[in-house]
Amino acid sequence: MALAAASVVAVGLGLNQVVSGGSDQSDGAAGQAISAQAEAGGAFALTGEPQHSGTDWTPEALSTDDRPQPQVSKPAESSFGAGPDAPAKSGGGDRLPAAGGLNRLTGNTALADCLAAVSAEHGAGPLTVDLVDYARFQGNPALVLRFVDPSGARWAWVSGPECGVPGSGADTRYQTRVG
User: What are phi and psi of 143, to 5 degrees?
Assistant: First the structure.
């Protein structure tokens, strides 16, 4: 457990040096910078560009290899939840379903921190992430991931807006093995 935590910290520190500011890079360069640094740090490798499909994912849709066809354009701000100044909606339990929406996770460093936290929580070693979708899960803003772990197992993972925030870990909302 201590080794996993140290790995997450090391990857996060390394990414902070490589990716400065996040929003100044183009999407293609951002994905390459995240992927290259992640491979060096060992927590994950990102094989595609993040997308903004607007899909409202369900457990049933995530448990199969069939993927809804993503929309080409980025959805409106409201698809990601409340803005940082809007009051968050309570969803019960300890977590807020849309604490500031997903906007925070569109920055390179925050996304890398989130993916490293998912890798650490999954606990099987470096992940090959082939889908990052800023979307919804059962009506709430969520980062939907599909990845392959070192054993070759395919997974679908849903993280909430607090993914990668210290103390929140992966902010896991749902996970399932695919196929």
Answer: -95, 115
Nearest to 44 by CA among 11, 87, 14: 11
pLDDT of the residue at 134: 96
Side-chain-facing half-sphere of 152: CA atoms under 13 Å: 0
Distance, in Å, from the CA atom of 160 to the CA atom of 168, rounded to the nearest integer, reads 10
Q: What total number of domains does the chain contain?
A: 1
Domain that holds residue 161: 2-178
Walk along the chain (179 residues) in steps of 10 and give the mean pLDDT of each run: 43 37 43 47 87 94 70 38 35 43 92 96 95 95 96 97 95 95
The CA distance from 4 to 26, in Å, is 31
